[in-house]
Amino acid sequence: MIYEIISSGFGGQGALTIGKFLAKAGMKEGKHVSWLPSYGPEMRGGTANVSTVISDKPVASPIVSFPNVLVALNQPSLDKFASSVVKGGFIIANENLCPKIPTFEGVKTISAPLSKIATEIGSEMVLNMLAIGMVIGLTDMIKYETIEADLTAFLEKKNPKLLELNLIAIKKGIDLTK
Amino acid sequence: MAKVLMKGNEAVAEAAIRSGCRLYFAYPITPQSELIEYMSRMLPKVNGTFLQAESEVAAINMVYGAAGAGRRVMTSSSSPGISLKMEGISYIAGANLPAVIVNVQRGGPGLGDIQPAQGDYFQATKGGGHGDYHTIVLAPASVQEFADMASDAFDLADAYRIPVMILSDGMLGQMMEPVEFKEAKTDEEIAKLDNQHKDWCIHPKEEGEAPHHNEINSLEIDPRVLEQHVLDLEKKYKLIESKEIKVEEYNINKDNDMVCVAFGTASRIVRSAVDQLNAEGKNIGLIRPITVWPYPYATIANALHDKVKKVMVFELNLGQMVEDVKLAVNGKVPVGFFGKVGGIVFTPEEIKAKIEENL
What we know:
Number of strands of chain A: 6
Strand order of the largest sheet of chain A: 2-3-1-4-5-6
Oligomer: heterodimer
CATH class of the largest domain in chain B: Alpha Beta
Shape of chain A: globular
Distance between the termini of chain B: 45 Å
Distance between the termini of chain A: 23 Å
CATH topology of the largest domain in chain B: Rossmann fold
Strand order of the largest sheet of chain B: 3-2-4-5-7-6-12
CATH topology of chain A: Pyruvate-ferredoxin Oxidoreductase, domain 3
Helix content of chain A: 25-40%
Strand content of chain A: 15-25%
CATH superfamily of the largest domain in chain B: Thiamin diphosphate (ThDP)-binding fold, Pyr/PP domains
Number of domains of chain A: 1
Shape of chain B: globular
Number of helices of chain A: 6
Radius of gyration of chain B: 21 Å
Largest sheet of chain B: 7 strands, mixed
Order of helices and strands of chain B: EHEHEHEHEHEHEHEHHEEHEEHEHEH
Radius of gyration of chain A: 15 Å
CATH architecture of chain A: 3-Layer(aba) Sandwich
Strand content of chain B: 15-25%
Largest interface: A-B, 18 and 24 residues
Largest sheet of chain A: 6 strands, mixed
Structural class of chain A: alpha/beta
Number of helices of chain B: 13
């Protein structure tokens, strides 16, 4: 199985971090992974995006032209990438910043007010963890336990409160897909 | 050691430090800035010296000095900055010194842009600086290989007293992939490496050591002396050509319908297309030069089995390595080319279409 993910949003929303955590978890589960960020000039209000590949076989091209998972945290990301998602793929959209969510035949689109839910959980910073939870709920790309272990190792001592919020957000993200 | 997820720029820096690099001089430029940042953070922790020079020209001349003192030294830059270093690289080659230079290529000419490109192939493999000289040029295609090449580059530089360039690009520099590092050299091991250079490098006379006169120089004003010097360099280059060629052959066999040639980042995109076509019943082979100087001419010539009616070359430039492929093919079959410029990277779908058009 090969997952080709594009994660995209405004700079600072954590789109690149979503790809990083997915890739890292994939690596810990013994898969082949790559993470390629956009690093060119972008217009203010445009998109910061990353191509992530998680595969059973060595990753040939790290560039994702046709994703099977799109995480769109804002409208410009949807506008730019939604039409390239392959049939059988998923679009995860943040309703709060995506007023116009398109639908495509054969592509499952799941949206939720992610910015609002993140604030309710306790921090806008956990927006990306909600999205990661939704990816876990929709696909068998990576396991919840892998991300939990990774986050725990990273945050347990440094910021236990943020760790708790992150884990709540991931579980909430999984629930949103049910 | 467990695998870690790291950017190519950081991985090559970490691997260089583990290989005994304690001196690094550079000037920042996108898309290689994580490399210089990593060195600035990590070198002081191992009692190394990091110095951000006032320019690329200054940095390469600091490398020249440190190499003359027999120490493992590195610099890095991206295309426009590498052009500035070329004079110094020619001096280092002329003075028979080991040094490692990393080029994280971006779009050119001039300031160009900051996206991945392979437009510096000619500069890297055919000279770049003035005079009859070569640098060994290694072309990585993954973050792991980028890191592994740091230690290879230092070993080759030491073995032949020659500047070695790692010819990477913005994509490999910016992307993260799992990487596993080799055991770091200990201070004792590094001292031992440095001591091996005592017969030629500049160093203070030690207690009990016989007086020595080691000279670091690239100027030979007497034509007879310079002639001999350049002929000696040529002997070294011939030896390297006979011993150090590295190449990956991917699905090369006697029933190939076509042979493709690509290096570095471009080779990964081509491999995606080749995999798709082979899954559809075609038989396409891919040759990936790992050293682009010395170049694997013989490997390409030997892959031209009966059914191969054309060789296709794919590069992120207007066609540079294709000239070496033509030398290797030597007119036996036509050689086609497809490239992208301006920092635009081709997609596997474009490559697949080009291969199908030419089958």
